[in-house]
Amino acid sequence: MLRSSLPLLAASLLALSSCSSSSTSDTGTASTTGAAATDSAATAAAPATSDNSSTAAQGGAGKADPNGPTAPHADDKEFMMSAAHSDQNEIQFSKMALAKGVTGMTKTFAEKMIADHTKSTADLKPIAAKAGVTLPTDMDADHKAMAPEMEKLSGKAFEDKYNKQMVADHQKTANTMAAHQTMTKNTDLQGFITKTLPVVESHLGMASQDANMKM
Description:
- The protein has six helices and no strands.
- By secondary structure, it is mostly helical.
């Protein structure tokens, strides 16, 4: 009797062992699958947070700030003088950039500065003539003093300086236009600012993007 019951006992023990292993394996698989799902969900959520932060960081670029630094604009004459000087600053520095052989986005930007700021002065001239104001045809004193140092630079050093200067210049010009638009009673000048300010803000956005890419 003892001898005949041994095979049955052995079979029972093997069956129990098999069930235990299967249960452990299934539990391990479920745990791993759950962890993978959690990791996948966390990974999927992370890029959205990163993208939102990036978008928020770029949100303020290309906008005028009437309370920020401005060029002189105590009256309409002073504003028009500053606007014409600003056009010349961008035109002449951009011509310098092209002469130095800038390429890519910087070259495209410089060509656009020359075209758009030439048009800006052309649009301002009849308004200035009507008001008896003779517009300057050269850069302002600060940019004249800056020009020799710019001329000494070349390659990436020049591009970096040019791009950063374009950001600073266009921010100040946009600020000045926004601030003076609330001051002037000259409807022609108000129309000029309404037409030109979005162009200057677009330049500011382009310059900011290009300067950030060069960093």
